Amino acid sequence: MKLEKLADRFRIDKPDSFRLADIDPRDTAGLDIDKDEAKEMLKDSIQRLSDLQDVLYAQDRWAVLAIFQAMDAAGKDGVIKHVMSGVNPQGCQVYSFKAPSTLELDHDFLWRTTVAMPERGRIGIFNRSYYEEVLVVRANPKILAAQKMPPSLVGEDIWEERFEDIRNFEKYQARNGTLMLKFFLHVSKNEQAKRFLERIDDPSKNWKFNKGDVAERKNFDEYMRYYEELIRETSRPNAPWFVVPADRKWFTRLVVVSALIEAMESLDLHYPKVDQSIRAELQEARLALAAELPAKNGKKNGDKVNRKSAAKS
Fold this sequence. Notes:
Elements: H1 35-59, E1 63-70, H2 76-83, E2 92-96, H3 102-105, H4 111-114, E3 123-127, H5 136-139, H6 141-145, H7 158-175, E4 178-186, H8 189-201, H9 211-217, H10 220-234, E5 241-245, H11 249-265, H12 276-291, H13 301-312
Parallel strand pairs: 1-3, 1-4, 2-3, 4-5
């Protein structure tokens, strides 16, 4: 089964009418498959993504950025681990953004992510991003106060102003050759509780649990309102949001890889073409290298190659 267009139903193309409640975290788009089938589909898709990444790297014209946002335990790390498992590490870079450092606080809120933007020919992954500035910072006024902004610039419209800054930043990146896709992994409150309990009950997962996660869980509904608003304000054709059901990990991964493949296929990627002078150099190098190798009949390969070249001429 092919995954073409699977992600389309989760791309927010009409943000003005978007409602988070319209997307079921348990949705699987009617895919009735078992885990083994899902793994096989993911494997095939990862190979396709790997092929596209190879051409992206060779062509060296476009950059790709995938942003992942979610509530805790929604599966961001797992998606990144599995979907990018077949990609050449040379052509991929992953950044996880946590609490800002002192240096980062001395800059504007987009600075630390701007310096981490992927180079041409590479896929960049942001595990959280500048969107934390209209989520966590909005939910925790003390964080905003610690950002050392001039008081006259922190007014009632600060969130609308940040949405505008983000839209302009993403438009600028798109105009300069960065393909941007943004994924909100939409996990239900009940599923999040189950995954937190797993982290507590399974010794191998204890390290993943942070008591602060439970505190933030109390603001779950508030965060959903903030996510809905930021998606409405910032999902645009040059940087669309995908609201991906995240209660079924296998399905989440399939949607993400499908979105990446479809977007990269739209770039008209191809290996660099060489002109006649380069082809002549290649042929000359081939003759020299072939001449160094013994042929099966004991004669040098160069003799055989030269005779073939002469026959063609």
